[in-house]
Amino acid sequence: MGDPSIPTSDPRADYLAHRSELDAAIRSVLEGPTYILGEHVARFEEAFAAFVGSSHGIGVNNGTDAIHLALRALRIGHGDEVITVSHTAVATVAAIRMSGAEPVLADVDPLSYNIDPEAVRPLITGRTKAIIAVHLYGHPADLTRLATLCDAHGLRLIEDCAQAHGAMHGDRRVGSFGDLSTFSFYPTKNLGAIGDAGMVVTKDADLALAIRRLRQYGWDTPQYSLVEGWNSRLDPLQAAILTVKLRHLDRSNERRRELAARYLRELADLPILLPVTLPGVHHVYHLFVVRTRDQGTRDALLAHLNAGGIKAAVHYPTPVHLQPAYRELLRTGPMTVTEELARTVLSLPLQPALTDQEQDLVINAIRAFFRSRP
Ligand SMILES: Cc1ncc(COP(=O)(O)O)c(C=O)c1O
To answer: Is the pTM here over 0.90, yes or no?
Structure first.
């Protein structure tokens, strides 16, 4: 068959769904007068921080910079260690390295696929300064146990919320728990821009001020660098687009949850592991990730779906600690679950614009695959 016709995600569909609002937002930026920071960025920062249930939002270039600047604002760098996971986008680890600190990687929980607090505990040393909890695939990490661990050891908690806009832990949104929380608005995220964009969110006014300085050359006032900084400003065009899309985020997350519920129902009798939602959390299904019993089955199912025009994908085929750039650089704990996930996970198409009919094609293709196998 030809090119896949059912994509894993489809950010263009989101544009088409809200075209007139988005075109108007773009026009209002073009009309100016400010093309750097300014009212569009300020309005989105305020709206997004309120959405998260936090106090300050600072728009930056992308989600990787958001983590890097969060670490800098906490004065974490050379000689310090930061614990996170290997089962994540490489960006989480890259950002720690950008700060000069050493990433130390912990295994993940076999149900939520998020950082396992019990695996973190033995990795803590006198040099550990922070834990970065990635809310992977849209399922919140165990923030209660992580906060307890951080309190006990005097560590900072950073939430990497790049995949979990709108997810909730108890009655609070993720991003409202950490000392600092970071978001990516990469186009395929639950809240996605039309290019790179990111944000740091915090309830701490001093940390917010520090991030504001760091994202713009360390300026205290224009042309006066109080501290060393970078250029990582959120683009007003992206901010205006994100302000519009934020108004639709809860609805589009609900659609993701409806589609996930259908997959869970329709695939329940097949020999695959379906995603689990732990009690007390609100999952926003950035990705719908199933697991097969072994790598051969996963690779064959992936090939079968792709051949049928269904673009499934693997997040992530190679854990960060096994990638050539990082293999020699990282201290890790045991990686049993992480490495098993890399062999067996498969992300099925799931995005708000997926229709029930398209989803039925995916479901039928998966059922046909298992019918054809002993
Ligand atoms: C978990 C995670 N952290 C960080 C990032 C980095 O975000 P960005 O691509 O905006 O730099 C991403 C997305 O790519 C991500 O999925």
So the answer is: yes
